[in-house]
Design goal:
Elements lengths: L22 E3 L17 H9 L3 E4 L5 E9 L5 E11 L9 H6 L9 E7 L2 H10 L6 H4 L3 H5 L5 E6 L4 E6 L10 H15 L3 E5 L3 E2 L2 E2 H9 L10 E4 L6 H12 L3 H8 L5 H12 L7 H14 L6 E3 L5 E3 L8 H17 L5 E2 H9 L5 H11 L2 E3 L2 E7 L6 E7 L20 E4 L5 E3 L1 H16 L7 H19 L2 E5 L11 E2 L5 E12 L5 E3 L4 E6 L4 H15 L7 E5 L9 H6 L5 E6 L2 H18 L17 E3 L6 E3 L18 H7 L7
Parallel strand pairs: 1-3, 7-8, 22-26
Antiparallel strand pairs: 2-3, 3-4, 4-5, 5-6, 6-7, 8-20, 9-10, 11-20, 12-19, 13-18, 14-17, 15-16, 16-17, 21-22, 22-23, 22-24, 25-26, 27-28
Length: 671
């Protein structure tokens, strides 16, 4: 891979000669000015600006560009390559985009081009170079098309030429990448925002250590892992609707832990012990299943990656002294004195003043004692939990020391003290027992498997509860398609869109056209911003609109604009069109006969697909990307999962649905 990295760090001007190379910072790439001023009003214009800064790799049928992105400069320089591959309609395997269909955009018009943004993984780059005979020879081979066909890239995003797009692949450190999943998503989100994408869809197949992240994060935070970047429910599989998805999330997230703990005690010993363990570690009460998983995710994120935190009976936590005037040594001494004072009262509740008075015999600094008492509330120190509570009668704070060593098996006596928002910090490492990120992940997987997933064969009340949780979890996992809508068009405070080009205006418009071979349906694509002179004639506006929409859409390759749509016919001047921006200008156009014939063939194929009868017991009526099987008698399609065919089983060569099978049973008795 070393031969793929360019190491020249020349500070080149924005306008570069072909063949020159430049390094860009990953952290800011995609923001306006990094590298291009992405201040245009349309996706296509911003993309053109960005590609001016790319290293041109190949031409021909599929053009491609590359950008070298710097992950870090110190201590060791680290780079990745981002490729942009332009796929024209002539290279499409299918005119219709399956990704659009599954996410709910099946009626979108066909675009002339797709743009693939790819950061290859080490494996996919090695596979690509092997396919190409080895060597970095893109200008001669002109074959980056093979790269976009490979699976397992660090990043693979796709844009249609109208600004709609799909996120196809994200892989982080767990798969050997030099980038974390968050870094990849931040880069992708900056690109979508900067380029002014319209909508981005994705099929959420994210997982970690055998756990589906859309279920894990859904239960913990009420949204998928991608929800952090604004992705929301788009469509589900197996008949799952948004209402079903939201209801399933609500029901699982609000399951009381006390109810689970009560019933699980009779089922196995380990689950209640682990629940008690994390209850004791949290500074806030964990009441619901959502509280538990959210706490564990936060705990996992706070633990260091390569080190561990220890504890033992003699372990003393330390408090971050960066915001206080006492040294760690004095703070640790005060903590030890407070713990010993609470031990002497034999685990009884005593007032804050009594603890303070007892500790003052050894620590004269009352300010230090006040700071430590405030920080120690509901924290774990070794095998003890320092409880703090407000006495409802006396209205004073009281403290109590609780021995929690019996909550854990002797062979797995692991505890950790969490960092308080203001004061709690690092732990000492004097002990011999450890808790790592891996241990928290292992416990999280245990809860995921034994609580969230189906508990088949369990009888009694707990069996009913767990099976209900399992059914709701299944519905959450079946909600796979998520969408983010980027709101970038139109500043509502503006009356006209004056561009920074002196005498030019931006006008949002679309073209309504009649599809003669599809029931004379009127099709109206999304609005685009066209740029014309302020004194442009109406025919010049028509001409610019024709140019833009012909460039974007296959069906409009020879569109001719004839007039302004009904309701806007009084508009005769360019400034009136710009004043009408809040509605958008609608033009009427016609498509030539030859193009109509090609469109007709495409829609005939669509009609044949629509004739495919899908009537699954899950309620699905359309294809959703999941595997299906067709009945050999009634020719009705159903999901293989819904008819009992497991994912690892082959589809039967001859298949009869339940209805046809039942009708055939009586015929077997005929002579």
């Amino acid at each position: 891979m070393a031969n793929l990295i360019r190491t020249d760090h020349q500070h080149l001007p924005k306008k570069r000669k072909r063949g020159e190379s430049r390094v860009f910072r990953l952290k800011t790439f995609g923001e306006s000015g990094h590298p291009a001023e992405l201040n245009e009003l349309s996706f296509r214009d911003n993309l053109a600006k960005l590609l001016e800064f790319g290293h041109f790799e190949s031409s021909g049928l599929m053009g491609s560009w590359s950008f070298q992105l710097e992950i870090q400069r110190h201590p060791n320089p680290l780079y990745v390559l981002l490729f942009v591959v332009e796929e024209p309609i002539e290279a499409y395997l299918n005119l219709r985009c399956n990704h659009c269909q599954y996410v709910g955009w099946g009626n979108q018009m066909i675009c002339n081009k797709k743009y693939h943004f790819v950061i290859p993984s080490k494996e996919t780059m090695a596979a690509f170079l092997k396919l190409e005979g080895g060597g970095y020879t893109f200008p001669e081979k002109e074959s980056l098309s093979h790269l976009v066909e490979l699976q397992g890239h660090v990043l693979h995003g796709l844009f249609h030429s109208n600004g709609f797009g799909h996120l196809l692949s994200v892989n982080g450190i767990e798969t050997g990448s030099d980038l974390t999943g968050h870094q990849v998503m931040d880069l992708w989100d900056r690109l979508c925002t900067g380029l002014k994408a319209r909508k981005i869809g994705l099929n959420d197949a994210s997982h970690k250590k055998g756990m589906g992240l859309r279920l894990l994060h859904g239960v913990a935070k009420g949204e998928p892992w991608f929800g952090r970047w604004g992705y929301r429910f788009g469509s589900g599989t197996y008949g799952v609707t948004q209402k079903i998805y939201e209801k399933a999330l609500e029901s699982v997230r609000n399951i009381p832990l006390c109810l689970l703990n009560h019933h699980l005690t009779s089922l196995n010993r380990e689950t209640p012990i682990l629940l008690s363990k994390y209850q004791s570690l949290s500074t806030e009460p964990l009441i619901t299943l959502s509280d538990l998983f959210r706490f564990m995710l936060n705990l996992h994120s706070r633990l260091p990656r390569d080190n561990y935190m220890n504890n033992s009976r003699n372990q003393i936590i330390s408090i971050d002294s960066t915001n206080c005037r006492w040294s760690q040594k004095r703070i640790q001494m005060a903590i030890k004195v407070v713990i010993e004072s609470l031990k002497r009262v034999e685990y009884r509740w005593i007032s804050r003043q009594e603890v303070r008075d007892a500790a003052r015999n050894y620590i004269g600094d009352t300010g230090l004692l006040d700071f430590v008492l405030k920080s120690l509330g509901n924290q774990v120190v070794g095998n003890y939990l320092v409880r703090r509570s407000l006495n409802p009668v006396k209205k004073v704070l009281e403290y109590c020391l609780e021995d929690i060593s019996n909550l854990l098996p002797s062979s797995n006596n692991e505890l950790i003290t969490l960092q308080n928002q203001n004061s709690m910090g690092k732990m000492a490492t004097n002990g011999h027992n450890k808790i790592t990120r891996g241990q928290v992940m292992k416990d999280m997987f245990y809860f995921y498997k034994h609580i969230l997933m189906d508990y088949k064969g369990v009888l009694g009340p707990i069996g009913g509860i767990l099976n209900q949780i399992g059914m709701a979890s299944r519905a959450i996992l079946d909600a796979k398609y998520f969408i983010k809508e980027y709101h970038y068009i139109r500043d509502t405070s503006a009356k006209t869109l004056h561009l920074d080009r002196g005498d030019k205006l931006g006008i949002f418009c679309t073209i309504a056209w009649k599809c003669h071979h599809h029931n004379n349906e009127i099709k109206i694509p999304p609005q685009e911003c066209i740029v014309v002179k302020k004194d442009a004639t109406l025919s010049e506006v028509y001409g610019e609109a024709e140019r833009v929409f012909r460039e974007i859409y296959w069906e409009l390759r020879d569109v001719v604009v004839e007039s302004v749509a009904d309701g806007q016919r009084e508009i005769t001047r360019v400034d009136e069109m710009a004043m009408n921006w809040n509605k958008g200008l609608v033009l009427e156009g016609n498509v030539g006969m030859m193009m109509n014939i090609e469109v007709m063939k495409c829609y005939e194929d669509d009609d044949r697909k629509k004739d495919k009868r899908i009537e699954c017991e899950c309620g699905a009526k359309e294809e959703d990307g999941e595997r299906m099987v067709c009945c050999d008698i009634c020719e009705v399609w159903q999901h293989t999962r819904c008819v009992g065919v497991q994912h690892n089983e082959e589809v039967p060569r001859i298949f009869l649905c339940q209805s046809c099978d039942q009708h055939l049973i009586p015929l077997s008795f005929l002579p």
